[in-house]
Model the fold of this input.
Amino acid sequence: MLELKSPFKNNKFYVKMKLMNKHNTKPQQDKTCFFFTYYKWVLWLSLSLYFFTSYLITNDPQNPTTSTIVSNSNSNVVSHNTIGVLKNLKVFIYELPSKYNNDWLSNGRCKTHLFASEVAIHTALLKSDVRTFDPYEADFFFVPVYVSCNFSTVNGFPAIGHARALISSAVELISTEYPFWNRSRGSDHVFVASHDFGACFHTLEDNAIGEGIPEILKNSIVLQTFGVEYKHPCQDVENVVIPPYVSPEKVWRTLEKAPVDGRRDIWAFFRGKMEVHPKNVSGRFYSKRVRTEIWRKFNGDRRFYLQRHRYPGYQMEIARSVFCLCPLGWAPWSPRLVESVALGCVPVIIADGIRLPFSSAVNWPEISLTVAEKDVGKLDKILKRVAATNLTLIQKNLWDPKTRRALLFNNEIQEGDATWQVLVSLSEKLGRSYRRSMVSSELESDT
Done:
């Protein structure tokens, strides 16, 4: 308890009161004492109210802005209590044998390539305050299996043919050693499928649809980069659409050299796979011929900077561009979506029906353009019209740091970043939590 001391004890006013007492002037004494007592109680009451209301504000569980945060020049890392809906969320992370995750990290690309969100999410959750070591208080159970780290020796691309067997083995292990999978049939268990067609675990759509989602996962939650607005067999599971992985460190290094509001001398940019003849060696039409049409139509147009080969300074080109073309590849999504937003280039999305990540945090219609695949030949006219009308407003919305933050994964969760958005999405699915459903049942039985 704070002891309140009289502010008068060692000053002239207090001395004067003592001297007057010597003359036995009782009326004056009573008046002075009354004033002193009154003032003391007013001061005490004021200070009590101040400390009491301060306590209520900083400890209000309903206050979404309450947090304990350690800040530095580069981040806003949540080190103690998370904010709002995340404050009471609890996630248990299975400690699986290293063959399911850590062994794959011997290849450095595992943590940096476009499918690496499976590693980034796991890494961030391990250090997060939402993590619980008591599975009986968990709302969700995270199963850390890295399926995108097996790189082909032929072409160097991720090979995921082993994914189904690896996940099946992990589920068999946790369902044997723990009771939590069986009690909910996996409905509160979370997996990551951060590659072309998500939970179907195949890079080609026909094969992905043919093989479908493994039965063992159909009752779980899958965090996947694949998402479309229409019915598709590969999203016929409870899912959260997440962004592909782009290194935040690489983004920051690029922004140090070329800030988002700096000079942009490239009007429309694309660098990537563009086949001159749309049907490639697999016999399939890559990008549904969209990229081929872009190359044929605009390769000779000086306003379009189109390149078909890899280049180490790729991100600097994005940072110099006004519009960045983001056409579909084999799947609708592309890392260009994240790179364009992060580096302040207006993404031009050419992928019919794509479902974009974290729409509650990223206002996609206000920061990007969407062009139908059939209209790709009109790109020049569409971009010219936007440049003459509302480009300034789009760029203003796009350059908001909160938008960039929402699409980047960090090693430690930062307020508003991509892993944070994953947790927000999970908090909206608490009806799948076995623990929460049991608590609700107990409360109903008590009433």
Q: What stands out?
A: The two ends are 39 Å apart (CA to CA). Residues 12-58 form one domain. Residues 26-58 form the longest helix (33 residues). Residues 1-36, 51-82 have pLDDT under 50 and may be disordered.
